[in-house]
RNA sequence: GCCGGAUUAGCUCAGUGGUAGAGCGGCUCACUCGUAAUGAGCAGGUCGUGGGUUCGACUCCCACUUCCGGCUCCA
């Protein structure tokens, strides 16, 4: 039995080698093609080309065919180490390769891999022969543009993405997973379940929450507030716009202007739509003299911000131009930060558990090499408090050395959804910049004025993105406590419409989210409709139920059971909701 | 913003230089029904927007909007 690491390594080799084969095929089919780079990636591989003509999706099968031909020739992959000069000579017509050679550090081995007629500058490793590449277990998936070396100032190349596996069966499994991802796409479910919409005529990247989506949001917000109060936070509310003074002081007009919208002119003053909430919270802080006895202050706000995002990056609910952050700022003394950070981290993990996300990874980003503001001692203490908190919670984490913002170190949390995809949600950031710029102080026990520590944190991130991830995580089948409609009453025939209405009214009075399907369809069609809407419970109501006052319950998983009464059923639902099921 | 693709009925999509189609959904009627689609009929589109070519444009060309897959960036 193959060990997981061996399997990963083997797949890596297969994918990387398949990328080489693809490059050969492309160069053969499109003479004049220049090749750039072609690595193996998470679930496949890609190769970047400069092509003499635009590529079409219809070209992919042709390339695949040629690849199969190459694989069938059973060519060995041969490694050869060459000198810099020889490498330059060999790739004299490949500008991208020449650039790579130029940038290889002196003394580094320059190796080439060939499979027959195609030679690539490559570190390897590769499979021994194309015989090891399963010709029926790879597939070219898509064409995309990609900047050379990921820099938008560089030439745009054509990237072909593909996937490769050890067997056709694995490939089929993977393709099935892609289909599943497509079915769960929050944009698709958003329409099918009537959760939200966007409107091109009214502006891209702006979300319209429909009643069902807004219902879920209301539940989330309610939960969020309750949790925050329980965790020692207070809630604040602040405006959507502020005068330029505010943004000049905060520095946003200096370092964040490219993400901000043009100002509105009001009474000859410039007002900006807020891209962040922090300056507003700071004004509340500064509205009184603060003592060390007041700290820590934890102020949270569901603050709606607007940020300019380049048109090409907008994506459903996941990347938008107007969104509501579940923001909070913590102002505390140096002695308090360790406990505060640990508190935030625990709070966040607690919330993820409640929403059904068990797998969380942390990313610790430290002081950037240059341009950082704030005293080194503060950076050290802050970073240490972040690290300690992660370690105390025994979280797996990745260190991002120098990856922090110029104003402070941070922890980001990424959660894994039910399909194993990672999403960046929580962020916990120190801010040494704002407290300085706004001259924030508190009176210490010795009477001196000190600078408080300021921590900015968003747990869910933004309600829009969180909702998008939630939809995909559950595939639209929200747990009972979040389901916008918990119960659909289905009369077996129109004669029982009145009874269905009465049952729904009773359920609503008991604080359940219930609806009756009184449409002209037959019962079976209504059941199907409720199933497709992923309603947790259906109540089938006919003569029996009407006379006995009982309920015939069908859950969306297909099981059926009886409830003695509306009250008993409601109690059962409440019980489950309380457990966040 | 950049590269490529797309933009036709509420949704999913077919069509192609000569008067615009299907399925689902909607509406109407009939059926009065017991755990995933009852049947029939009707309505619905200045073919994303603005220009151009043409006797004639949904179809060809240009610009723009929005969307999709990426790149870059990020909650």
Write a concise keyword list for the protein shown above.
alpha+beta; Threonyl-tRNA Synthetase, Chain A, domain 2; BirA Bifunctional Protein, domain 2; Rossmann fold; 3 domains; eight-stranded mixed beta sheet; five-stranded antiparallel beta sheet; 18 helices; 37% helix; globular; RNA-binding
Structural class by helix and strand composition:
alpha+beta
User: Averaging pLDDT over every residue, what do you get?
Assistant: 93
Unreliable residue stretches: none
Q: Please estimate the helix content.
A: 25-40%
How many strands?
A: 28
Largest sheet: 8 strands, mixed
- Taking all Cα atoms into account, the compactness measure Rg is 29 Å
The side-by-side strand order for the widest beta sheet comes to 11-15-16-23-20-19-17-18
Spell out the CATH superfamily of the largest domain: Bira Bifunctional Protein, Domain 2
Could you give the distance between the termini?
38 Å
CATH topology of the largest domain: BirA Bifunctional Protein, domain 2
Q: Which CATH architecture of the largest domain would you pick?
A: 2-Layer Sandwich
Which word captures the global form?
A: globular
CATH class category of the largest domain: Alpha Beta
Q: Strand portion, in percent?
A: 25-35%
Total number of helical segments?
18
**How many domain modules?**
3
């Amino acid at each position: 039995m193959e060990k997981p690491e061996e399997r990963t390594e083997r797949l890596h080799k297969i994918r990387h080698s398949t990328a080489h084969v693809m490059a050969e095929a492309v160069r053969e089919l499109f003479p004049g093609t220049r090749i750039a780079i072609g690595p193996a990636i998470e679930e496949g591989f890609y190769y970047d080309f400069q092509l003499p003509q635009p590529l079409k999706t219809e070209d992919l099968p042709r390339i695949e065919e040629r690849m199969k031909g190459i694989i069938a020739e059973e060519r060995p992959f041969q490694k050869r180490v060459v000198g810099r000069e020889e490498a330059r000579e060999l790739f004299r017509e490949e500008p991208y390769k020449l650039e790579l050679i130029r940038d290889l550090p002196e003394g580094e081995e320059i190796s080439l891999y060939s499979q027959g007629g195609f030679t690539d500058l490559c570190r390897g490793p590769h499979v021994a022969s194309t015989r090891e590449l399963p010709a029926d277990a790879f597939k070219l998936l898509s064409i995309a543009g990609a900047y050379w070396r990921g820099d938008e100032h560089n030439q745009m190349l054509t990237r072909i993405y593909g996937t490769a596996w050890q067997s056709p069966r694995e490939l089929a499994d993977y393709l099935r997973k892609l289909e599943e991802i497509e079915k769960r796409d929050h944009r698709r479910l958003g329409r099918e379940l009537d959760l939200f919409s966007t409107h091109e005529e009214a502006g891209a990247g702006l979300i319209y929450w429909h009643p069902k989506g807004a219902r879920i949001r209301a539940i989330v917000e309610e939960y969020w507030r309750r949790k925050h109060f329980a965790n020692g936070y207070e809630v604040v509310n602040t405006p959507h716009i502020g005068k330029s003074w505010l943004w000049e002081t905060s520095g946003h007009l200096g370092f964040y202007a490219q993400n901000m919208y043009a100002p509105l002119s009001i009474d000859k003053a410039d007002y900006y739509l807020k891209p962040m909430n922090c300056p507003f919270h700071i004004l509340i802080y500064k509205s009184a003299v603060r003592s060390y006895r007041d700290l820590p202050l934890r102020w949270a706000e569901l603050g709606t911000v607007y940020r300019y995002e380049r048109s090409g990056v907008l994506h459903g609910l996941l990347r938008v131009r107007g969104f509501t952050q579940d923001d909070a700022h913590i102002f505390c003394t140096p002695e308090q930060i360790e406990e505060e950070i640990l508190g935030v981290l625990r709070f966040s993990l607690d919330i993820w558990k409640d929403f059904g996300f068990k797998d969380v990874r942390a990313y610790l980003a430290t002081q950037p090499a240059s341009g950082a503001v704030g005293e080194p001692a503060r950076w050290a203490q802050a970073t240490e408090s972040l690290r300690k908190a992660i370690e105390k919670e025994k979280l797996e984490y990745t260190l991002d050395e120098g990856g922090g913002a110029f104003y402070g170190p941070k922890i980001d949390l990424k959660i894994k959804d039910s399909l194993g995809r990672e999403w960046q949600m929580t962020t916990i950031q120190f801010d040494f910049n704002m407290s300085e710029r706004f001259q924030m102080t508190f009176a210490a026990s010795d009477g001196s004025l000190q600078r408080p520590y300021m921590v900015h944190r968003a747990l869910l991130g933004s309600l829009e993105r969180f909702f998008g991830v939630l939809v995909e995580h559950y595939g639209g089948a929200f747990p009972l406590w979040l389901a916008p409609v918990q119960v659909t009453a289905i009369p077996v025939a129109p004669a029982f419409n009145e009874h269905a209405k009465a049952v729904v009214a009773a359920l609503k009075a008991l604080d359940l989210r219930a609806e009756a399907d009184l449409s002209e369809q037959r019962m079976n069609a209504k059941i199907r409709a409720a199933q497709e809407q992923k309603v947790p419970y259906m109540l089938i109501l006919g003569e029996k139920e009407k006379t006995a006052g009982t309920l015939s319950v069908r859950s969306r998983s297909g099981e059926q059971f009886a409830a003695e009464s509306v009250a008993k059923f409601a109690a059962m639902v409440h019980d489950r909701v309380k457990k966040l099921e």
